[in-house]
UniProtKB/TrEMBL annotation:
Domain Metallo-beta-lactamase: 63-229
Database matches in SUPFAM superfamilies: Metallo-hydrolase/oxidoreductase
The protein's required cofactors: Zn(2+)
Keyword Lyase: no
PANTHER family: ACYL-COENZYME A THIOESTERASE MBLAC2, METALLO-BETA-LACTAMASE DOMAIN-CONTAINING
UniProt similarity note: Belongs to the metallo-beta-lactamase superfamily. Class-B beta-lactamase family.
Subunit field text: Monomer.
Keywords attached to this entry: Antibiotic resistance, Hydrolase, Metal-binding, Periplasm, Signal, Zinc
UniProt GO MF annotations: beta-lactamase activity; zinc ion binding
EC number(s) from the headed UniProt entry: 3.5.2.6
Gene Ontology, cellular component aspect: periplasmic space
Protein name per its UniProtKB record: beta-lactamase
Length: 254
């Protein structure tokens, strides 16, 4: 079976309209805890996967993706896991094993699978960046609040961040790594196995299709897509999300 590393490199080297999903593999995976693991997907780029605990009820066990991105002799954390313990495990691994300690973080919207680890970063004086709307919504719901602000479109070290418009949440950012062609769609993009749009509590399914089109236009060179949950794929994940939106009940619109 082709290794994960070989598969991802093939994805990055093949500029085609639709890229096959990256297969699951443990080739480059490191388990940090029962509910925390990391996996290298491209040079200088790692996906971290954290799982929700029993306190999350129906969402217990749900894995959430994020990124660790090497930036010189440091790294950037994109999304912080469900809780501070998971974030602490990621920070320790980046410092002691990767030898690229986290210097900053980005959270892509206000839900706690993105912001739950913020207290661990605050405790170490690591700045956490997000949209103003994300901070406002997190504060209003008593969730951890990122302390630094991002604009709707800006470079952030080796990354580009962009707010395409409302979708899964009113404030969902996406993050592009130009060096590898990897686009982190977060919960704005569904994985290929998804049969529905998941949690629509804060979604805007009316705006979501236009937001997806803006994402395509802003990052036309994206060749690998990392969804917020589930396996990596190619640009077809954007089309899959659009198809799910066409099937969404009108009551899901806000």
């Amino acid at each position: 079976m082709t290794s994960l590393r070989a598969s991802v490199l093939l994805l990055l080297l093949t500029a085609c309209a639709s890229t096959p999903p990256v297969p699951s593999s443990s080739t480059d995976e490191t388990v940090l805890a029962e509910d925390v693991r990391v996996r290298r997907i491209a040079p200088g780029l790692w996906v971290h996967v954290t799982s929700a605990g029993k306190e999350w009820g129906q969402w217990a066990g749900t894995p959430a993706n994020g990124l660790i991105v090497e930036d010189g002799d440091a790294s950037i954390l994109v999304d912080t896991g469900w809780n501070p313990r998971q974030a602490e495990a990621l920070l320790t691994w980046a410092r002691d094993t990767l030898h690229h300690p986290v210097r900053a973080a980005v959270v892509t919207h206000f839900h706690e699978d993105r912001t739950g680890g913020i207290p661990a970063l605050d405790a170490q004086g690591i700045p956490v960046h997000a949209l103003e709307d994300t901070a406002r919504r997190a504060a209003a719901q008593g969730k951890p609040v990122p302390g630094q602000r991002l604009s709707d479109a800006q470079d952030f070290g080796p990354l580009s961040v962009f707010f395409p418009g409302a979708g899964h949440a009113p404030d969902n950012l996406i993050v592009f790594h130009p060096a590898s062609g990897v686009l982190y769609g977060g919960c704005f993009v569904k994985d290929a196995a998804a049969k529905d749009l998941g949690n629509l509590g804060d979604a805007d399914v009316t705006a979501w299709p236009s937001s997806l089109q803006r994402a395509r236009q802003h990052y036309p060179d994206a060749r690998v897509i990392v969804p917020g949950h589930g396996l990596l794929g190619g640009p077809e994940l954007l089309g899959h999300t659009e198809a799910l939106l066409r099937e969404a009940p009108p009551a899901a619109s806000r």
